[in-house]
Specification:
240 residues, alpha+beta, Alpha-Beta Plaits, two-stranded antiparallel sheet, 22% helix
């Protein structure tokens, strides 16, 4: 599915407002009278978007996949969420635990004029960034590291040690696009890495190696806003 997280409280359902989960469950209830537990490949925060989020659910009844997708989308018509495809899976498939890689994109608009068409979908940074210096430091993020310095204080992961498979910084006109891939990420890890790299791009003398060594959140840069973050894809192993 894809969704615009601007007015959502994130993936997880709670009583504080509409979430991706609650919007989907409401649509299912209107369709078939059931509110299935919907498990996503990632738990995005408030304001974060998704271009291709994967989720699974168990549904009683004899419904084919196409009927489910069309019916749920009918009841989502006024919501910022849409189902792109729906297929039947094996009983042991799990959107979160079967996932072998997750891909995120973060978009910065680096120009003096504020965004209009891309409002709520980019982080507007009006001061010019040194992309080459950012790329040099970004390469140091790749690999297996203790990411304590890039971890949110409320992170519930058992270990701060993660392996970042790739980290690329691309440019497209005034847009600076950060792309990250890993099996899993810590809470706010991507936004904290981007925030740090942007400060580096503004001339702050951070060194990623020193930040890793510090193992302290205060050693890294500020957390980038949620607006520019997109969950892009989830990969799953195939059985040949």
């Amino acid at each position: 599915m894809e969704y615009d997280g601007t007015n959502l409280i994130g993936w997880q359902e709670n009583r504080q407002g509409p979430s991706v989960q609650s919007v989907l469950k409401d649509a299912f209830e209107k369709f078939c009278g059931m509110r299935p537990d919907i498990v996503g490949a990632g738990r995005t925060d408030a304001g974060v978007h998704a271009a291709n989020m994967v989720a699974h659910f168990d549904l009683d009844g004899d419904f084919d996949s196409n009927t489910i997708m069309r019916a749920v989308n009918f009841y989502l018509i006024n919501q910022p969420v849409v189902v792109l495809s729906c297929v039947e899976t094996s009983d042991d498939f799990h959107a979160r635990f079967s996932c072998v890689a997750r891909h995120y994109k973060y978009v910065v608009l680096n120009r003096s004029a504020a965004p209009v068409l891309n409002k709520n979908r980019v982080w507007w940074v009006p001061k010019k960034l040194d992309v080459d210096t950012m790329r040099i430091q970004a390469k140091k993020l790749i690999g297996n590291h203790d990411f304590t310095s890039f971890r949110a204080s409320m992170c519930q992961a058992k270990s701060p040690i993660k392996t970042l498979d790739s980290c690329e910084i691309k440019t497209d006109g005034d847009l600076i696009i950060f792309e990250f891939s890993a099996r899993s990420f810590l809470h706010h890890q991507v936004r904290n890495m981007v925030g740090t790299l942007v400060e580096i791009g503004h001339g702050k003398p951070y060194d990623i190696d020193d930040i890793f060594a510090a193992k302290n959140r205060s050693a890294a840069g500020a957390t980038a806003p949620a607006d520019g973050l997109f969950f892009m894809a989830a990969d799953y192993a195939t059985n040949d």
